[in-house]
Amino acid sequence: MERLEFKITNNNKVPVLAIFEIKMSLKGGSVNISSGARIVNFPAEMFNDAFFFLEEAKKLDKQATNDWLCWRYLRASIIYSLTSLEAYTNRFIASIISDKLKLPNIANDFDDERMYSATKFEIILPLLTGKEIDKTRQEWANFKAMNKTRNRIVHYLGGTEIYNDADIEGVNIVNA
What we know:
By secondary structure, the chain is α+β, with helices and mostly antiparallel strands.
């Protein structure tokens, strides 16, 4: 099997990964050839998954018997939402480093760096764009609360308080 991978850009200037595969096999003296292609846009996939699980949670009747299923959908929605946001942010930062600053090697290394999402918004983006994040806006407060909820899920320390609907940083429909 031959496999070719390369990055292409769609109409919205969003780089996506294109994977083309050609498979050849010999059976009974004849050659079978098949090919396929798929386009991978991980941030968009994560966003679509987040939306899917949120909609599934909203469809459930408000009955105690549905709590666990609702929480499952909401956890997934929260995690996928922040994964999507972080992936888009990483792409944006890498594109600025590569295209505007003309430092493609550093942009490639950036993919391997791990830092908090809030750090990217508070420090890296302002350094690269010259624009500070307006921390007085509701969107910033929403991001901070949702990020804290995501961290409470991913780095769980125990207890059931995370499922308290009155908890602004808990797993509930408000945060999904």
